[in-house]
Amino acid sequence: MANYGGAALAQKKEAPALSGEVFGALINLSGGRRFTSQRLVLYAVLAGQGQEGAAAVAREALALFRGAHQTLVHGSDTLPGIFCRELEDVYFGRVGAERQFCDFMDLAERTLAASEREARVDSPLLAQLVEMTTPVLALLNQITAIYQDQSKKHALLMKKQLHGVITEIETIAKQAKMVSFNARIVAARAGFAGREFAVVAGVLSNITGEIDDMVKTALTAANA
Fold it and tell me: What CATH number was assigned to the domain covering residues 6-156?
């Protein structure tokens, strides 16, 4: 019997914030399973019809599907496993995607083993595998959509945080300009003794100008 691992994942700690690059990799890996599952079933059918080499291609597709599934559920050195409530629900909740995927992989394995034992296979195993294709594909589409939705939420959150940081920088820059302005007045009143103070005030004024340019650049990027 397959080990679905729901109890272990229930104890997972809150995942750290993910980067845009990580989200892109997760979406590609999840979306790739859709193609791999269809390739697996197609070549399993061809193997059942006795086409030479079809079983080997189907096994390669099964290995890719299994590897991607392992990474997306349990994680790897570079990618997290299930990291949000929406994914946990679809895998281990009422939908039971984990169980269905494990059943799909197990059935594919048994179907390919049968085709390797016989030249042609016209068995209930192959019929069941073909029948499972549509619901499995629907689940894969649903899960990929979750990754895409999480990626959009992440992008919006990053924009909000960036706008917050920019606002704080603008406030600091305004305060620095005021300090620079007051320093120039004090330096002017101090005459010869205030020359060094005037230099410092000039440097501070240049820095605030650079900050203004940086803020404009950041705002353009945030609104892109």
Answer: 1.20.120
